Amino acid sequence: MPDEYAESERPALEALQRLGWDVRDQQQANWADPRETQSSAVLEPRLRDAVKRLNPWLNENNLNKAVREIQQVAGTNTMDENEQIHEKLVRHTTVEQDRGNGKQHYTVQYIDYENPETNDFFALNQFRVAGPVEVIKPDVVLFVNGIPLGVVECKSPQIPEPKSEALDQLTRYQNEREGEAEGAEELFRYNQFSVATWMEGAVMGTYRTPKDQYKPWRDAYPLEDDELIDRFDLEGYLPDQYRMLYALFEPERLLDQLRHYTVFEESQSRTIKMVARYQQYRAVRKALERIDKRGQREANGGVVWHTQGSGKSLTMLFLALKLRRLEDDPTLVLVTDRRALNDQIHATFERCGFPNPKKSQSIEDLRERLQYDAGETITTLIHKFQTTDNEDDDDEFPVLSRNENIYVMADEAHRTQDKNLANNMRTALPNAFYVGFTGTPIEKDEVNTRRTFGNYIDTYTIDQSLEDGATVEILYQGRLADIHLEGETLDRLFDRIFSDKTEEEKAAIQKRYARTQDLAEAQPRIDRVALDIVEHFEEDVPQPFKGMVVTTSKEAAVRYKETLDDLNGPESRVVISEGHNDPEHIKQWTPSKSEKSRYKESFVDPNGEVELLIVCDMLLTGFDAPVAQVMYLDKPLREHSLLQAIARVNRPFEEKTHGLIIDYYGVSDELKEALAMFSSRDVERAMVPVKDKQEDLEAAHNRAVSFFDDLDAVEKCVQSLEPDDRRIEFKNAFKRFSKLMDIVLPDPMANPYRDDLEQLSTIYGKAKERYRDETMNLEGAGAKVRELIQDHITSQGIEILNDEPVSIMDEVEFDARLDDLESDEARASEMQNAIKHEINVRFDEDPVQYGSLKERLEELIEKYREGRRSEQGTIEELRTLMDEIRSRDKAARSKGLRGETDLSFYHAVEDVLDERDFGEEEFVELTADLVGTVEKFVTKVEWKERTHLQNTMRKEVTGQLYRSEIDLSAEERRELTNRVIELARAHYQ
Fold first, then answer.
1. In whole angstroms, how far apart are CA 540 and each of 586, 691, 778, 923?
2. Domain final residue, candidates 466, 495, 529
3. Residues 859-905: pLDDT tens digits?
4. Does 890 share its domain with 905?
5. Which residue range(s) make up the domain with 150?
6. Which residues, including other chains, have CB under 8 Å from residue 709's CB and lie 6 or more apart?
7. Do 476 and 656 meet the contact criterion of CB atoms below 8 Å apart?
8. Which of 128, 117, 142 is nearest to 13 (CA)?
C-alpha cells in the first residue's frame, strides 16, 4: 500500500532539517499549538520573539503594535493582503519611539535578510488552519519568524496521479475550486511558495498560480546535483523533491527570492503574484557573477538567451532589483529598439512596483539624465543614441559618463544594437556593463551580437521551454498553395490570381500590380484568403481561443478588415500605427492609443468580444496573449522577425495543446532558408509541420487500442480496466492519443482514427463511471477534442466526465441504471464498484460499521472471482449489502434526524455504544442524548478552535454517560467520551 508519510512527507521533513530548519513531526511527537484559535495561521509567540530579537530596543507597546500590524493587514481580497504583507516583510515597518533623543520614527525588521542565521526557520507537518467551512491540514508548512511562507503538499509516488492530486489539494486549500469555500485563505495571505511533491517529481508556484502553471525546478544553480546528493546524504541519485526543497527553502535562497525575485502585476483588473522560475533565478545569479568578474578577459558583458515566452522581461526586472540592492546607487539603463517594447518594459517595471523608472523623452533628455542623474532607472529607445534627429548624421557621439556604476540591459540585443547606434551607446558610456537579452538564438556565425555584448551568460532554449511547459509547441500548415507568394515569379502569381480575366483585362491590371506586395494586396487574393480564414477559424479553432492576422502593410490590414466584415467573419479589430501621410481610408481604421489598449484587453480576455487582431508590424513582439492559438500569416518574415512573430501563439493556456501558424505567404515552404542564419539545433523545433505528427499519431493510436481485443465489446473492455495499474496505463495512452488528435484535426490524416477515438471515449467514459475514478478526466486532451468527446459520450447516455457518478443512495436512479445494463456480469461489476465507492466515502464517519461492510464486500468479490459464487448469487448478496447501507439512513430519519452529517454521526455513536452490552431501550435513549448534547456545540462558530467550548462539551458528554442507567467505570466513561468527541470532529467539519 502507498504510504505518503514514509515515501514523501517524512523525507521532506528530514531534508529541511539538513537545510537548517527546526522541524517538528507531529507523527513522532505531539506539538503544543500556541495559537488561541486555529483560524489564525501565524505562530505569534515565535513572531513576537523574533521581532524582539531583531529589534531589541523596542518597547512593549511598539512590540505589540508591530506584531499586530503584520497580522491585521486589511485588503479588498486575499491577494491584496498578500501583496501588502510582502511589502512589509521586504521593506519592514516603522514605529515612533523615544530612544533617548526624543520621539522619532524607526524601522522595525520582521526578517533579517543580511544575517539569515538570526531568523527562526521552523517547519511543521499536519498544521491545522480553520477556514469558514473546513479545517485544512497541509502536509508541511514552513514558518520564518512565525510567518507561514511555504506550503508543501506531499504525495506517494505510488498512487495513480500524485501531481494532479497534490495540485488539486493546494487548489482546494486556496479556495480556487468551484463551489463552496473549502479552504483556509488565511494561510495564503502570507504565502511565498506552494509546492506539490511526490519524491520523483515536484512543481512549484505561489498563491493563486493556476494548476497548469506550476513548474519544475530543474537546476539548483550554483550547486550541481552531485553536490546536493552529498548534502542530503543520498546514494547516487537525486529525486526531484530534494532539488526543489533546496532551491526554494535553503534559508538564504528563500530570503533572497522573497526579497528580490517576487513581484505583483496588475493584469485585466486583477493582481497576479509572480515568483522566479529556475531559468530566471539562474540567469540573474550568473549575470551578477559576470559583473563581479568585470575587467577580466571575456567577462565585460554577455547575452542572456531565453526563448520567447519564458519571462525575459521579468528576468531583466529581477536583475534590476538585485543590482539596486547590491550596488551603491547604480544607474540602470534599459534599452529597446521599438517604441512598443520600450512602453512594455517601462510598464512592467512600473506595474511591479519598481522604484520610479524614467522614460527618456528625447535625445537631449537622455543625454542630460546620463550626464547628471545617478541612481536612476531609465528606459530608452536605442535610436536616442544619435547625434541629431537625423539617423544618417555621421557626427561623432560624445562621451556622456565614464561611471562604472552604470548597467545597460539591452532587450532584443540582436537587432539594431550591434550597428552604429550601438557604437554610439558604447561611446557614450564606455565603462558601463552591458547585458544583452534576446528571445531568439544568436546567429551561428558568432559575429555581431557576441562581438558587441560578449558570450552567453545563460541560455534557455526552445526545447527546454517545451519540456518545462513554459511554452507550447508551434505547428504550421500551408493553405491555399496556389496563391502563395514566397518563391514564386510575379508572372506565375499574376496568372493564378487573375486567371478569370481576358488578356486585355490582364494587361490593364498588370500596370497596377507590378510588385509582389501589390499582388499580396490584390482584392481577389484577399477575398480568397479572408474566406479561408473565416472557415478555418469558425470550424477548427475552439472557444475561447483567438487568432491574429498578419499582413504585408496597413493597406492590406484595412482590406482584410473590410473583407472579413463583409463575410460576417469573427469579431475583429485593426491595430496599426498612425502615419501623418496615411490616406483617409486608412486613417479611419487607425485606432487611438486608448482604443488600442481596449482592443488588446478585449483580445487577451478569454471572454472579450474581440476574436481576431489584424496587424502588420505592431504586436508582433512583446505582446503576450496566452489565449491566442492561431496566427494567419500573410507576410514575408525571416530570421529573428519570424521567430518573434510566431511566438505570439506559444504561450500556455488551459487546454491549449499547441500554437498554429496558418501560412498563406509561403514562408513555411522556405523555412530552412528563413531561419538559415541560426544553428539548426537551436531552431529545429521552432515550427513543426502538422504533417510531421502523422507518425506520432499512428503510434499513439496503436497504443490506445492495444488494451482491447475488440473495441465493439464495450462492456468487456470496461471490465478489463478494473485493475488500477491497467486503468492508469490506458488513461495515459488515451490522453496522448486525444491530444494528438486535437493537434491534427481537421487535417485528413486524422480521418482513419475518428471512429476509434469515439469508441475509445465511450470506453473511457463508462470506465470512469464504473470505477468512480476521478482521475479519468479530460485535462490536457485539448479543447477541440474535449468538446468532441463530451458530445459523443453524452449522445451515448454516459454521464458527462466531470459529473458525479450516480450513488447507490439514489435508489430510483441507481436501480434504473442497473436495469439498463446488458448482462448480469455488468450489473455485478456496477454494484460492487458503487458499494465500494460509498464505503470509502463514508468510512471515516463510522469506521466500525463501514469497516465491517468493507470486509464483507472484499470477501464476496474474492469468492466471485474464484468462481465460488454465481453471478446471480453475487448480485443478491451485493443487493443485501446495498440495502443495509440504505436502511441506516431510513432508520435514522425515523428518529427525526435529517441532515446527512447528523445521520452519519448518529450511526457512528450507535456503533461505538453497540460494542457494549446495553439493553435496547437504554441504548436508544443514550444515543439520542449524546447526539443532542454534541449538536448544541457543533452549531457554534469555530467550535473546533474554541478550547473552552470543547472542554464544556466534553464535560457534558461525560455527564450524560454518568447519569445514564448503564453501569460504566470511570475509565470506560473517559474512553467513550474521547470516542464521541473524535467522531464529532470527524463529522462536523
1. 31, 16, 19, 67
2. 466
3. 777 777 777 777 787 777 778 777 777 776 555 555 444 444 455 67
4. no
5. 4-42+115-264
6. 716
7. no
8. 142
